Amino acid sequence: MKKTRGRTWVALLLIMMLIVVSACSSPKKEEGGDKSGNSQAAANNSGGAGSEGKTDTGPADPLGKYDPPIEITTVRIVNDTFKYADGDSIDNNVWTRTLQDKLGITVKNKWVVSGDGPGGQGEQKMNVSIASGELPDFIPVNSKQLKQLVEADLLMDLTDVYEKWASPFTKEIMNQDGPNALASATFDGKLMAIPNTGSSMDGAAMIWVRTDWLKKLNLPEPKTMEDVFKISEAFTTQDPDGNGKPDTIGISLNKDLYGGYAALDGFLNGYHAYPRQWIKDSSGKLVFGSIQPEMKQALAKLQELYKKGEIDREFGVKDGGKAAEFAAAGRVGLHFGSMSNPLWPLVDNKKNDKNAEWQSYPIVSVDDKPAQPRTGLAVGQYYAVLKDTENPEALLKVINLFVETGWGETTTPENYAEHFTKGGIERFKYSPFQAWPARKNLDIHLHVSEAIKSGDKSKLNPEETDNLSQIEAYLSGKEGTELGWGYERIFGVDGSFKVINQYVSSNSILASEFYGAPTETMVEKDATLQKMELEVFSKIIMGDSIDNFDKFVADWKKLGGDKITEEVNEWYANK
Amino acid sequence: MLQKLKSPNWPLHLMLLPGVILVLIYSYGPMLGIVIAFQKFMPARGGLFDSPWIGLDNFRYVLDMPDSMRILKNTVIIAVFKIIVGFVVPIIVSLLLNEVRKEFFKRGIQTLIYLPHFLSWIILGGILIDVLSPSSGIVNQFLSLFGFEPIYFLGDNSWFRPVLVITDVWKEFGFNTIVYLAALTGINPALYEAAIVDGAGRWKQTLHITLPGMMPIIVLTMTLAMGNVLNAGFDQVFNLYSPQVYESGDIIDTFVYRIGLVDAQYGVATAVGLFKSIVSFTFISVSYYLAYRFANYRIF
Question: What are the structural domains of chain B?
């Protein structure tokens, strides 16, 4: 009897262990199976299809199809602006189907997370993935994560892969914004990732004003900072929406101060202050913009505006999204923003209030020195490849197809619409790997306004035709064409790219002087320093003594800032 | 051992097994990760032991940080106030509810006050930001009826901590009240009858019968609360704070979150977390000992 009990004991224990252990290990098993399937496919591939194998010496076809098809893994960081046609999802959409049809590539997402802001959910999930080693073959990372992976020696050197497989058009796009994009992904002369190139000029700040309010209150267009203050005061005190309540404010602001909707960058640039940017001082050395005296003046003015109620009293608890709701509700008439603001969030304001009219203006200066918008490196994302990946060139094939579909010579308006904008849905977002021509948005504006003036649409490429048709839908006065209003405000004759065109033709955009990977001390101290900056600046705006700025500068230097400055200048000297 | 197996209790002990295994896997296993606190941890390198050892450098780094004392102070202040207020309010409410004779009224109140317990802070955070807004929030509209200037509850360092304590207690007191009410039903009614015969009024009864009767459960909740002395509530603070109130509201947990998850400095974050665990462990050990000394309460 005793024995049986003992045995039952042991048996029960074993069963429980089994349950726990099997529960733990089942996902791993699946993954293992997956991997072997993958490499098998790859093996078949290099054996079967001659021209596609890596070992093959024949000429590389940048858009060649894998036969049999291969499967690649990656991860996706999406955001709330992703919309899908019926039945589609991030795992199954027009891009995944096209990649299968045209390239024989099946994309498998190891995970999908919403939240692509700096420090957001996506970045955190990526950090966790890196820490736990659960990485896909193709890894979208930011520059800091890229540095981590390079240091850990996990990445494949893509120098030759890029040379061999990038199409001439892809190579052109990679260099359109200058050599910095590729340089920023190069470590010790080796290209360790492919940058998702963007356009630095597209990030230049500008002023957005509600012109229907301007007209109503008989105010001038903003030509100087004085005008901006005048407008802001009138919008706050003179009831521009005419509802009899003092519920409007002058200048919109979000709690992060820089970046996102309703940030301060443009305002500060008007004071010749360049927060979190490395600028050249008079001696030719690089210095940190946030600690320069111009910043102090700008903060003093912001404090004054806050006191008078011209800045949202509650900006401290409002992120960009909340600040956008404020604008959509018609509570604010001026903000410092970017070229894309008509599509978000101003179009929501237009939907709520048909009379709302917004116009963009170049940033203005507080003195006689012209204001210069400063832009960072236009690469927000890099695509790195794990060392043991079988088909690293798949990355470049996808990018080749992406740029070819968007702006290549072989694409058609239908093909473009299908993959980029059809049905008012931004379909281009689905493509896992992308690259964007730096000048293309400006060219759209130039070509579209030319076509509007002359009536000749024959010279437009598919994307431009698509944009023009959106704009024409709006101009024809049809109902429900607010989206067309948004496009008109961006690419139209008086769109926001008119402002950027002014910046470009007067050569006033200042590019970031530092575009390397974060330095040793930056990785360690940046978080502390940035937190301190945000805290001190927000409190000064909300009424703390302006002299706290001097204490901040001293603290910043002491707590690692001096060391970072040293490292950045070292990088600059060796560039 | 075999003798013990004979005892009729062994099936009960067996039922502990799944729990023990879960604790081993999910609570003790991850403790291995503590080694990260003593490393210059390189996340992508994979294993726990593949990064270089740097001794106590991470701890020194944290001590050198200008904020660390402030964060510790905030954490302790917020947590202690939460424990005290969150401890007293449910006792008082349960004593008051206990005097209510109308059953449906008592039930109604109970249900109403423990509802917020089931809302997450991410929802309550959004609600509170609206409710406490200086320009449109209902609280400030109410205050303005009496001629007060609007108060920026979530952006003012002198108000932020009280708001944290009050909202936390508001969310949780109903739930704790139920625990005490349960304890109250366990008190022998004969004691009250005897007290009435002796001429004790309502107040004397409460003082000499109800409170002593609740004492064991009070001591138990107090002991459990001591282990939380450095848990000032990540969810709550994270959803309500902003840079302006870092000065009064930044706590260890939000700090660890920023350092660890946002900035990927895992070594430093682990060091802070380890420090916190050690302090919490000390506190709970002391309070357990005290509970044993003064209330004869013990688990083992």
Answer: 57-295 (1.10.3720.10)
